[in-house]
Amino acid sequence: MNLRGSSSSFSPPPEILITVCLRELFKREEISLLEDLNQVIENRMENKIAFIRQHGIRVRIHGLLVDRYVQTFKEKMSFFSDPELVFKEIVDDPDKFYIFKSILAKTNVSKFDLPNRDAYRDFFGINPITNFKPLSGQCSYMGGCLLEKIEKAITNELPALLSSINSGKQPGLSSCEATGCGEKPKNRY
């Protein structure tokens, strides 16, 4: 009687076991790779929304600063004043006129968000102050105010868009069961 032949017929050869294990491993790695690619795409969208929001904050602050320069210019101008001298005084020493401090007093403005003071000297060197209207003059009955629209986008609409993207990417149990996301590594020794 050949015991060796009959005992080996009950268990599959080691080559088949290795192939099955490799197939399972490959399947889990493929699913993990696809989930990682999906995560990269979702993060890209989150980063774009965050970038747009940050840009909106900078646009808001720029609008507030230009408006404050315009207000200060109009307040300091008199009938006999030289517009260039008045504005040069404002641009040369904005702290004297509390330009930046008044913007810091506004809601949701950090001192780290404020641009360099010299940038406005350059800005108004290219764009004369007389070309600008106050922000209150930018409002219309039907369209509303531009600053309010920017603030609404920054504080409500973009965060809502971001949370709607985030709510759809929480992994469900089915994907964890397939990939073993909660699986602990097995000690081989």
Automatic annotation (TrEMBL):
Domain of life assignment: Eukaryota
Start-end of Polar residues biased regions: 168-177
Gene3D superfamilies: 1.10.268.20
Region Disordered, residue ranges: 168-189
Protein name: Sarcalumenin
UniProt organism field: Seriola lalandi dorsalis
